[in-house]
Design brief:
The protein is of the alpha/beta class. The protein has 15 helices and 10 strands. The protein binds spermidine (SPD).
Length: 357
């Protein structure tokens, strides 16, 4: 049933918008003002009931728009055609946006609920002192797979993806850093490597994965894997958790060569028009009860310690999605590699995608 809801998410969001006054923008529209709050978030990354409750509590009309990659989000914010009051970039994008003067500094006194965040997720190197960003969700990148479709085989490493048992049987998340990252990790290089020879080696190695790759997809990856359209997928941990909620046969592994630890934080873009409204929304999402409901709905890991305490032990105690600090310390956080190198990663990823066609 939930899968069907997901399949018709667009219809649902539009219907929801009509019922509750949430406006879903098309890309040419521009909004903003003191009675509206424009939010730019990843797809499938909020419980829609929370938007409706926020509207009721704040008296603001929410205009909600989604993106599917940091690169798409940054391009849109840089272009400035549409202005947004709140967005949710990942760590390397936050660092880049800060450098480019695209973010508004955050006044912590306007966020009394900030004290619910686990200090482990504060003051990280991409935003010292959380001057520009506030934790929303965090997670890892790994492989979700269906042992039953693979005669009981337990996938453990990135290099397992090249096994012939996975011929035309893998789905990949449509992300340049994620795909280039596991290509590099499979060669035991850092996923922040900038050595041109290593990057070319990773791209060539990814080229040899082509016969095993069934598709490179966006949020529909969850439905496809839950429906057993492929035996394995490279996904963000929260998506794995949701998929496994739909299909209990699947499992999730953070590969032994290493992987990515990521953080998605809320920010206020410099061009925001309703800064007070942005604070209200951020504080609302930091409330433990709201953060717990959001985590339960989207399946991602919350950095809110008091929300975590409200979640079922089955969720909060699952080390696959709430890995210990000992494990996370072994993982790598994406660095802001600079405009040119990030563009180069994108080019290499595009060449890999073209090579498949
Ligand atoms: N469908 C929501 C996806 C959010 C994933 N954010 C992860 C970013 C990792 N760089």
């Amino acid at each position: 049933m939930k899968q069907l809801v997901r399949m018709f998410i667009v219809v649902f969001v539009v219907a929801f918008g009509l019922m509750y006054g949430v406006h879903v923008l098309n890309s040419s529209e521009g909004y903003g003002g003191s009675n509206t709050l424009t939010i730019y978030n990843w797809g499938d990354y909020i419980d829609p009931d929370l938007i409706a409750e926020f509207e009721e509590e704040s008296g603001l009309k929410v205009i909600y728009q989604t993106f599917d990659s940091n690169e798409a989000m940054m391009t849109k914010i840089e272009q400035g055609g549409t202005t947004f009051d709140v967005s949710v970039p990942s760590e390397y994008a936050i660092s880049k946006m800060k450098e480019e003067g695209l973010l508004h500094p955050i006044d912590h006194s306007k966020l009394p609920n900030l004290n619910h965040i686990d200090p482990r997720f504060l003051d990280l190197s991409f935003d010292p002192g959380n001057e520009y960003s506030i934790p929303y969700f965090w997670g890892t990148v790994g492989i979700v797979y269906n042992p039953e479709m693979l005669d009981g085989w337990q996938i453990k490493s990135w290099n397992d993806l090249w096994d012939k048992r996975l011929r035309n049987n893998i789905l990949l998340v449509d992300g340049a850093r994620e795909v280039m990252g596991f290509g590099l990790n499979s060669l035991h290089y850092s996923l922040n490597d900038t050595d041109e020879a290593h990057l070319q080696e990773a791209k060539s190695k990814l080229g040899t994965l082509t016969p095993n790759v069934k598709a490179i997809v966006g949020d529909e990856i969850k439905m496809l894997l839950a429906n057993e359209e492929a035996a394995a997928g490279v996904v963000w941990s929260g998506d794995a958790s949701e998929i496994m909620g739909e299909n209990e046969k699947l499992d999730y592994v953070v590969p032994e060569e290493g992987s990515n630890l990521w953080f998605d934080n809320m920010v206020i873009p410099k061009t925001a028009r309703n800064i007070e409204g942005a604070y209200k929304f951020m504080n609302f999402m930091l409330d433990p009860e709201h953060a717990a409901r959001n985590a339960e709905y989207v399946g991602y890991s919350t950095p809110n310690k008091d929300a975590l305490a409200l979640l079922d032990e089955e969720i909060s105690g699952d080390e696959r999605f709430y890995p210990s600090p000992e494990l996370t310390e072994k993982l790598e956080v994406y660095q802001n590699l600079g405009k040119r190198m990030l563009a180069h990663y994108n080019e290499l990823f595009l060449e890999f995608k073209m090579h498949r066609k």
